[in-house]
Amino acid sequence: MASLGLDVLEEQLGKTQAYGLLTVVLGTFLYSIKRAFANHVLEHFLEEQPCPGRTKGPFSWARATFRSVMGTPQMVAEGYEKYAKAGLPFIIPSIRKGAYLVIPPAHFKAVLSKPESVVEAHAPQFENVSAAYTMRDPDIYPSNYDVDIVKKHISKKFGSVARELAEEIALAFDEHWGLSSEWKDVKAWLSLQDIAARAVNRVSVGLPLCRNEKLLKHAISYSMSVPEAGIGINILPSYLQPLLGPLIAKKGTNHCEAAIKIYLPLVEERLNQFHSDQKAAGGWMPPNDMLQWLIEESATNSNPEQMQPRRIAHRLVMLNFNAVPPSGLTLSNALFDFYSATPDRGFVESLREEADRTLKEEPEGYWTKNAVSKLSLMDSTIRESMRHSDFGSTAFPRRVAAAAGIDIGGIRVPRGTHMEIPMHAIHMDSDLYSDPALFEPFRFAPKEALPPDAGPHAGEKPQPLITIEETFLGFGYGRSGCPGRFFASHLLKVMFAYIVQNYDIEYMETRPKMMELMEFRFPNEKSTVRVKRRQ
Ligand code: HEM
């Protein structure tokens, strides 16, 4: 991620050319700042808003923009305290998207629930990852159609594939983390991502494809390449993007094509079965998996192109993109937080006891949807980690689309204004959370689930992981909040339960440091946890 696609450029162009290109990019940097203010109404508006970290003097925007590359977290924290808490928006300059407006929490609801015609979500999300180059088919991402599939099918029916999911998670952990009682280091984010990919593919395309190493490698590599290439393309001035965008995105899109190719024969076979089943009315028992749900939804769509095998295979790749990296990232952060929290407080034993007892009481004997919903301490631990180690100083790109602009706290915000939410500052606000910098695993657990000595702030805000609110933004907020969070919460808890029940993880004296770049916060891919199989 931190390489911003430079490694990709180096590979495609060679070292000299890649650095030559970087010089062109920096040389045209001032041009891109100018571009951000090309709309004069917008320019005038942004000029008038407070911008923390922008000091008077020549080139004040350029200096503030340079500072934002590494200094966005401090700039947002300052703006949040000074302005957002008083209900006022403020500006953060950005090398990627020009200056953007940070929305104060008091106005989240009003702004983020507005329809797409007034406040756009999809187009800015699309631009955020340079989807024109990294994804290419605008019907695939981000689209209401995809969101519908997640909402209408995956969120409602994942309980019916819970047995297969749990089985694959167990087998994948046994392979990736091993069965040995000797300590060994594993790269947390990457290995959890591999395990999540197998689990997601088990319930989307089933056996044996879910264990096809090439498929998983291409699907994961593509998913990881999108944000990296997206940033690399975004920092280019707009006139260079059509020229260099396809080059920077190429490595990733090659992985995407390779994954589509591997999915295609199964998709074609399943479409044939689906059509012949309709004609013959019977004889074939449709499989119960996400591919089938995708086909059934596509068949009801008025656009026949949605039934093209390639389209469906491409949607399967995007399911990996949506589900796999965020699950690996979230769970690795949870492990880093949890296993660096004070070891003598008995937190691991509490999670283990809860998992053992719940599974023992479950009549089906595996992690059903109902059993997983009883894991309150684990639910709270993951939510607390998503609060404590969230993924952005600001997040959730939106843009004013209404010709007349919109009103935020008495301020008229013109059409075209790019807006985001100060996620990390909210999660670290001591008016909202006591001792916010402390990782307090059972902060969100209901009082009746708490073990003795659960922690000074345990049970202070009982709320399930999937609840989205102004004070907890790990799954987004408003109209475009994550529709996959019900499935994600189940998946994460089954994975975490398997870890505490079957592995010891060595306590870490200090938590591996989060990386921060521009507005992004993420774990280091190389950070490891030390694990051994429990006897
Ligand atoms: C821990 C795992 C996950 C996290 C942290 C996460 C987080 C998020 C967040 C923050 C957003 C909102 C983005 C925005 O408003 O700009 C989002 C959107 C989305 N997520 Fe998730 N997600 C996770 C897992 C999943 C899974 C498993 C699926 C699919 C089954 C999924 C499908 C989607 C889709 C389709 C959207 C776009 C919604 C829209 O544009 O209206 N996510 N996710």
Automatic annotation (TrEMBL):
Keywords: Heme, Iron, Metal-binding, Monooxygenase, Oxidoreductase. Pfam families: p450 (PF00067). Pathway: Mycotoxin biosynthesis. It comes from the Eukaryota. Its cofactor is heme. Heme binds at residue 482. One of its GO terms (molecular function) is oxidoreductase activity, acting on paired donors, with incorporation or reduction of molecular oxygen. The keyword NADP does not apply. Belongs to the cytochrome P450 family. This is Cytochrome P450. The lineage of its organism: Eukaryota, Fungi, Dikarya, Ascomycota, Pezizomycotina.
